[in-house]
Amino acid sequence: MLRKKGYLLILALIFVFSISTVAGAWWIFGSDEQATWDKVQAEGKLVVGMDAAYKPFEYQDKNGEIVGFDVDVLKEVAKKLDIKLDLQNTSFDGIIPGLQAKKYDLIMSAMTITEERKKAVNFSDPYFNAGQVIAAMGDNSSVKGVKDLEDKIVAVQLGTTGDLKVSEMEGVKEIKRFDTIPEAFIALQNGQVEAVVNDLPVTAAYIKEHPEVKIVGEPFTTEYYGIAFRKEDTELKEKINEALAELKQDGTYDEIYAKWFE
């Protein structure tokens, strides 16, 4: 009987010790979101997942270095947070599973904020409006906005948001669909069409190399890009949002935008 009591006492002590250890570990290391931000600070770096095949947001230059608009924004965010960057090039189709598997701390890869993606990740405040825009030849074009597409021949890339939006418009004379967006722009430059409808950033990147093409009017759809985080990483998201807000307030964001899109 004494042995049994002693055995039970030992089991009780082990149980109490185990609970105390678990509780102590939680107290020391905090919840998951606290641990991620602490890890970033302790390591002095932010590990970022991105698909470096989407110029001008993230792509590899001739030296193999990942560059682009997103990268420049990230560099300035890192300065604000006093940390370094570790960019991980990964395919876009597996980028969210990679985040959830903790291969990186966040995703910044020209990712549109959608309701479907919100089910899997949390997003930062929007940092880019990638809505649809209209491109025409020069400032003297008769096309100045959406209403001017009536009775016009309009080029789009097959299966894109631009294709969908123009298909919904009434009064467009003809829609010419191309397999790639450069083909649509070549048709515009050759006078085969009178306008191209496409997303803002890619259109802006094309215009940077072909200044005879102009964006007319403002984006007529709203498709915001955001930085993606694991659901539990609320503190990291707050830190990034604060840094993004500072970049917009002090003019740094505008300088980066002008570098890549004006």
Automatic annotation (TrEMBL):
Molecular function terms from GO: ligand-gated monoatomic ion channel activity
Keywords carried by this UniProt record: Signal
Domain Solute-binding protein family 3/N-terminal: 45-262
Annotated coiled-coil segments of the chain: none
SMART domains per the UniProt record, alphabetical: PBPb, PBPe
Protein name per Swiss-Prot or TrEMBL: Amino acid ABC transporter substrate-binding protein, PAAT family
UniProt KW Magnesium keyword: no
Gene Ontology CC terms: cell envelope; membrane
Pfam families assigned to the protein according to its UniProt record, in alphabetical order: SBP_bac_3
Domain Ionotropic glutamate receptor C-terminal: 45-262
Organism the protein comes from: Orenia metallireducens
Top-level taxonomy: Bacteria, Bacillati, Bacillota, Clostridia, Halanaerobiales
Localization of this protein: Cell envelope
Origin superkingdom: Bacteria
Family: Belongs to the bacterial solute-binding protein 3 family.
Record InterPro entries: Iontro_rcpt_C, SBP_3_CS, Solute-binding_3/MltF_N
